[in-house]
Every structure is written in C-alpha cells, then in structure tokens.
C-alpha cells in the first residue's frame, strides 16, 4: 500500500462529523464564488488580462464552471476528490499569481481567504468526503458487482 492509499484509508476511518460541516460550508462558499464570477465575469477577465496580458476566454470560463460544479459536488460529497482536483489549479493560481502579485499584505483579505480555501481543499483531497456524503451513502447502500 503506497502513502496515498494509507492516507486515504486513515482519512476514511478517522473522519468526524464536524469536518463534514466544514466541507459543506467550503463547497457552498466555492459555489457562491462561482455564481458571482458568472454574474459579473468582466472584472475577472480584466484582472486576468492585466496580470498575464493575454488570457484565453476558456480559462475565465473554466474558473467559473469549476467553482459552480465543484462547489456543488464538494458540498454534497459526491466525487469530492475529483471536484477538488479541478479546483486546485484555480486556487493555486489565485494564491500565487493573482493575490501574491498584489502584495503579501496582512490587509489583503482576498489573499488570506484564498490561502485558507486552498489549505482546506488540500486537506479534503487527502482525507476524502467523510460520513455525511453521497459517496459514503453509495458505498453503504449500493452494491456493485464483484468484477466492477
């Protein structure tokens, strides 16, 4: 068993309910952030183009779509690790390219918020979705064939 499988197994056996509440709130927060991006995509596009001079429209739409779909999946606990895998590049970019360019300042609340969300995403990527999730419900109640 490699280290990733050991971490997943430990996370699955030592998950508490209050961590699920944090995962749900994180998912809702990411979804709401996605709604704000979709509702007003022009400032995001301008911010990205001033930092990188040329940003394909695809990247801006990827950020909004990843937040919308990923936030719902994280909150529900459905395919949590996959949803987080799509969120991680967005948050790494937010922390290291967008917010750090504005300066590492104690008053830069967007930077601290991005760092906290990134740390939580990494935590739930390792430890999984927990007992209050659709993934756990499916494991317990839906029997898959042996050869699946």
UniProtKB/TrEMBL annotation:
PANTHER family on file: INNER MEMBRANE PROTEIN YPHA-RELATED, OXIDOREDUCTASE CATD-RELATED
Major location category of this protein: membrane
Signal peptide extent: none
Name by which UniProt lists this protein: Putative membrane protein
Listed transmembrane segments: 21-41, 53-75, 82-99, 111-134
Record keyword Transmembrane present: yes
Keywords: Cell membrane, Membrane, Transmembrane, Transmembrane helix
Subcellular location: Cell membrane
Domain of life (superkingdom): Bacteria
Similarity comment: Belongs to the DoxX family.
Topology of the protein relative to the lipid bilayer: Multi-pass membrane protein
GO cellular component: plasma membrane
């Amino acid at each position: 068993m490699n280290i990733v499988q050991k971490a997943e197994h430990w996370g699955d056996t030592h998950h508490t309910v209050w961590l699920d509440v944090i995962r749900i709130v994180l998912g809702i927060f990411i979804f709401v952030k996605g709604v704000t991006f979709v509702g007003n995509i022009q400032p995001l596009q301008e911010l990205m183009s001033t930092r990188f001079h040329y940003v394909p429209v695809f990247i801006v739409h990827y950020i909004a779509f990843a937040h919308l779909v990923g936030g719902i999946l994280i909150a529900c606990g459905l395919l949590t690790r996959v949803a987080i895998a799509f969120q991680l590049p967005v948050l790494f970019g937010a922390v290291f390219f967008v917010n750090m360019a504005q300066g590492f300042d104690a008053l830069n609340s967007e930077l601290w918020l991005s760092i906290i969300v990134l740390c939580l995403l990494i935590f739930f990527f390792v430890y999984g979705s927990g007992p209050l999730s659709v993934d756990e419900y499916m494991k317990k109640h839906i029997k898959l064939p042996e050869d699946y």
